Amino acid sequence: MRMRARSGLLASYALVVLVLVTLNFFLPRALPGRPIETLSDPRSQTYVGDATTRTALQRYYGLDRPLLEQYGRYMADLSAGDLGTSIRRHAPVARVLGERIGWTLLLVGTAVALGTALGMIAGVRSGWRRGRRSDRRLLALLLAFDNLPSYFLASAFAYVFAVRLGWFPLYGARTPFSESYAPARAIADVAHHLALPAAVLALQLVTFQYLVMRASMVGELGSDHLLLGRAKGMSEHVLKYRYAARNALLPAVTVATLHIPLALTAAIFVETVFAYPGIGRLLFESVGDRDYPLMQGCFLVLSLLVVSANLLADLLYRRLDPRTAA
Amino acid sequence: MAALLEVADLRVRFDGDVEALRGVSFSLQRGQTLAIVGESGAGKSTLAHCLAAIAPPQAAGSVRLLGRELLGAGEDELRPLRWEKVAIALQGVPLNPVATVGAQVAEPLRERRRMDRTRSWARAHELAAEVLLDTDLLERYPHELSGGERRRATLAMVLALDPELVVLDEPTAGLDPATRGELTGQIGELAAARGFGLVLVSHDLPAAAQLAAHCIVLYAGAAIEAGATRSILTTPAHPYTAALVGAYPLMSTTKDLHPIRGAPPDPRAIPAGCAFWPRCTQAEAICSEQRPPLAPARERLVACHFGGLKRLLAADGLHKSFRRAGRTVRALDGVSLHVAHGESVGVVGPSGSGKTTLARILAGQLEPDAGELHLDGPPAQARRPARALRARVQLVMQDPWDALSPRMRVAEIVREPLDVAGGWDERRAAAAVAEVLEAVALAPSGPFLDARVHELSGGQLQRVALARALIARPALLVADEPTSMLDASEQARLLVVLRERQIEMGLALVLVSHDLALVRKVTDRIVVLDAGRVVEEGSTPHVSGAPRSDTGRRLARAAPTFDTPAG
Ligand code: SF4
């Protein structure tokens, strides 16, 4: 039963990935202004001057072939890990992405973990004491934070904590030429660089998670099983966590999934402001450079990240809720 | 030693205007059993919560468990009492959906008694076995259990700390009848074996009868009748209890179900005075003005200005003799009969038993030689007391041709009682005639109104006679074989009309008949007459099911059935 449910889940995710990959092929070809064709048009602004790259591009896109053949080729290349060549960087897109993805995973992963944890804890406390002063204060504070746009928050943090106070480095993911550092020191260096962007990003996520957890907690307050726990003489602590929070967690986990696209979008800004060498910044640069293969690669990776995050959350939900596990 | 439970003037008012409980008081000794019955919305669950030390903060008054006040006590004072002294099975048997059943049964043992995992599980298994729950189910999650299993699991959980008081809120609701009976029986056994005090909150009257010696009937957040369960459910005193019992389908009742007229009050707008008055068929002005206290009446407590169902008619020691062919025939030889408001009493007996004489005396058409006849109720209106009194009792005779003048028209016959009473103008009288004719399934307008008695069929005539009896809204209808001229379907139709009138107006009925099969469908109580004496009297199911007198048995044998002779 359980096995079958899970393989069904995996199959549906595989289908989603297939659709994504296919969209990634067709969308740039369907864009208005035919951006890909203009790459090899000397009259256009996006004309690729470098002859080798241009040939590589034309070969990659296979513009001289029928569409179906192009698609077949694309899929074949993709399964071999070939995402084409970056126009500006003169390097395989796959390799460029590979260098960057680790940083994005680190940044977004840290921020999501931090934001979710903080949001949930705050939500549980706030919801449990609904309407009291501590609840109202927390609610007002987080809503205020939530209304700040991410680039503003990022710039403000950078100014205050890096420029004025000098507590954290202003940009980058590690100190230049730090490859020779001992492992412990290297890790500390990475964490030091990570702190500010991850904090900004986490703050972007905290409020949403907090609101959901709080609402879910408030919903639990009136539940019959909580009343039963009370009648059983359970302590406040047990009631709050084992009864209310444990059940309130279920909808909150689903919502945490919705964070991922949010976090990735915000990551584009945060990485740019802090010059953090992740996919977000790469996407930003590639758009500026009109580096289509790279852009496509970034999109593909980002969407695959979203899908896998969803899959993870689904699997987690199944573990948490005995009713879906059956 | 303090009583197990003492509740005094318990009131709960939510959000300012929702009155869930309006002053409930009772007490319960150790090991006693109490049922709290009533329709949904009567405040039963709120009351249950108050008893189980999980009262809503709005609760006021006093609830003392083993001498300790629960209302207003802090969580730290209540926590040690919960589950240890009083345990509750909440309505709908909620369980924590994300924990296994076993973990939840063991939870109080681990958290409250500090038992370790192994010992608490072992104990959970014992408890499950005690309530006949398959112990394999302890590993499961609540959603994997059936309704009956969830209830058993909850019961095991309730017993975990061996409480002195167990509160069960609708423990059998939503179960199929077989499971319900099984579970009820088992709860009774557990209560007897463990000796805990039991409060059963339920609308399941048979379960209440089976499990609880005492009973409180709750209506609109207040107790309206309290006493021994057996007497309350078999001879209800309060009009609401009577209606509630009359609406409950039982194997032991033979009478057709009577729904309660109207709907329970909105807890936001409970009527002033007696909360039941808009639905009560015997309400008077005082009922909407003053709230009746719960006061002793008829070996119990009843909250009614009249001590419960009014006694409508009391006939005591009636004697009547006729001279016939030079001989004196004793038609009635010391017959007494009491009829309560809204009650249906069957008078059965063979021909010549005195039934018809009794009917005519009750209706005031014949003077008894000796004995007293009282019609209770408000004093009859001024000038012509006898006549006004008469209007409150109407007689429908066996043979309508005797009673109705053949030259009169239908409209005249039916409205005559109104003309006698006086004070009806032309329009209102005509409307009343149309309404009552419609009620007895006759044409309310057109040429039928002008038809004369001799033009009507027997069935039509009997219905005209009934319409005439009902039009003045009598309090008591004495009907002597009122369906003798009707075929089975017409008879059924007429009985439905009578039932509707009883529900709507609280009409009391004395049905005189030799047909036990008919009488048992209509009446609450049966009196068996033979040779001018009462030879048997009792509740309809008893008399019709297992008659004790010879006459009763003869009538039962003579009653029609579809059974074909065996062999
Ligand atoms: S007679 Fe009056 S007081 Fe008694 S139940 Fe009816 S309405 Fe209430």
Automatic annotation (TrEMBL), chain A:
Organism field: uncultured Solirubrobacteraceae bacterium
Keyword Nucleus annotated: no
Iron-sulfur in keyword set: no
Annotated GO biological process: transmembrane transport
Keywords, in A-Z order: Membrane, Transmembrane, Transmembrane helix, Transport
Protein name: ABC transporter, permease protein 1 (Cluster 5, nickel/peptides/opines)
Location within or outside the cell: Cell membrane; Membrane
Residues of the ABC transmembrane type-1 domain: 101-313
Bilayer disposition of the protein: Multi-pass membrane protein
CC annotations in GO: plasma membrane
Family membership noted in the UniProt record: Belongs to the binding-protein-dependent transport system permease family.
Primary residence: membrane
PANTHER family (UniProt xref): OLIGOPEPTIDE TRANSPORT SYSTEM PERMEASE PROTEIN
Membrane-crossing residue ranges in chain numbering: 7-27, 101-128, 148-170, 190-212, 249-274, 294-313
